Amino acid sequence: QVQLVESGGGLVQTGGSLRLSCGASGRTFTRYTITWFRQHPGREREFVAGITGTGDMTSYADSVKGQFTISRDNAKNIVYLQMNNLKPEDTAVYYCAAVFSDRAPAFPRNYDYWGQGTQVTVTS
To answer: What is the separation of C-alpha 113 from the centre of its chain, rounded to a whole number of angstroms?
Structure first.
């Protein structure tokens, strides 16, 4: 069993930055790929960025490459999503998800555990 809790969301202006955190339980944290998804109002949940347990592989949606950075601190059981140069289209509920894997699948159906989500709102 893995429990995930997101934090760090909020209201920012266009061009601002936020750092989201995904705190995870369990001593096997380093074996899990952790991936961020986001869900815009009225849309399906979409892949944002993923990182494998050792941090040796990261992947990003084309829409956020060069803008967002995913990282993890295994000593603290935390995965971060640094979000820079935020735009109104980044407004969404952001979720982190976990799966026991050496890859970072881009589809929600591949993930076993989910956090409750954190709201990010970017104003113009």
So the answer is: 13
Gap between the Cα atoms of 104 and 3, Å rounded? 18
The pLDDT tens digits for 28-52 are 788 899 999 999 989 999 999 999 9
CB 81 within 8 A of CB 44: no
Q: Over 90: is that where the pLDDT of 120 sits?
A: yes
What does the alpha-carbon distance between residue 87 and residue 27 come to, in Å, rounded to a whole number? 36
C-alpha 16/C-alpha 71 separation (Å) is 19
**Residues 43-72: what's their mean pLDDT?**
95
> Which of the 8 DSSP states describes residue 63?
G
